[in-house]
Design goal:
The chain is of the alpha/beta class. Helix content is 47%, strand content 12%. A hairpin with a 4-residue loop joins strand 8 and strand 9 (184-187).
Amino acid sequence: MTEKLRLHAEQQYAEELAELRKADTRERPTHWELSPWSVVTYLMGGKLDNGFEISPKYIGSRRLMEIAVSTLATDRALLLYGVPGTAKSWVSEHLSAAISRDSTRIVQGTAGTSEEQMRYGWNYAQLLSKGPSLEALVPSPLMRSMEEGRIARIEELTRIPADVQDTLITILSEKMLPIPELNTQVQATRGFNVIATANNRDKGVNELSSALKRRFNTVILPVPSSEEEEIAIVTKRVAEMGRALELPAEPPALKEVRRVVQIFRELRTGQTADGKTKLKSPTGTLSTAEAISVLNSGLALASHFGDGTVRAGDVASSIIGAVVKDPVQDTVVWKEYIETVVKERDEWKDLYRAFRDAD
């Protein structure tokens, strides 16, 4: 069998989900695979009574995850909101995997997402030969989730045109999807709910209408509150992705992870870690996800073109690429940062030279 590049959460963590189901004695909502308490344990990690260790999938506020899970146990849909790179899609996938054991019922929002992708489409060969019928109907992931009482995911909701967004209003308020061509409807089965994600930095965002906002309970996922928390997230995800991609190099040393995270945090907040120097911020978000990407690129370089150890030269170009999105404005910000901050840190001399060589 061909090796998959990326497994779904319910496949990758099948053992953990199975152990949680065996140990779960708490009440489960209809069609939920786990109780709300066990879903939060799956997300946050912990040790079961039998000693089995559940790895954390989200490093951050447990209370936020409790609010998200309890929302899905009601008739309110969940909107995960925040800047890019705050693990919204990651949390959405793992919530679906834990609750429904299926994270694949997903509509990817784009500027070209149509009403048919949200509701249903038609098999045109069947439609021409037999006319409108249930056999000719092609259900969307949302419609299948309604029929089966499962969680549906909508990624980047604010990228979807406003008139298409509003097709959700009837589904979320009435728990029903009309099919006027057949003079019938699909009524949602217990267990059905929707997790949507949206970010507040996207250019060309289609704001949600007030009517649609009211149908969601919004949970804002923040950037990591501390440097140590962000380092822990980056270290964990880089190690996992390195194993998945079968990169022969060792995961980056803590020193390199800390430097990448510190650079991103300083430029993001507009001041150095000690608070003594004010900095200009670039146009990009410099999210945790981008820090993970930078270190993964460095890991690949060290694996295939180095000695297997991630060094300053392996991450320098990727850091510059992450920071300099606008070739005019961001270049000024970046050059000022490396000359006034990086150059002055004795322990960062190798990084300074790598940045100069990469320019």
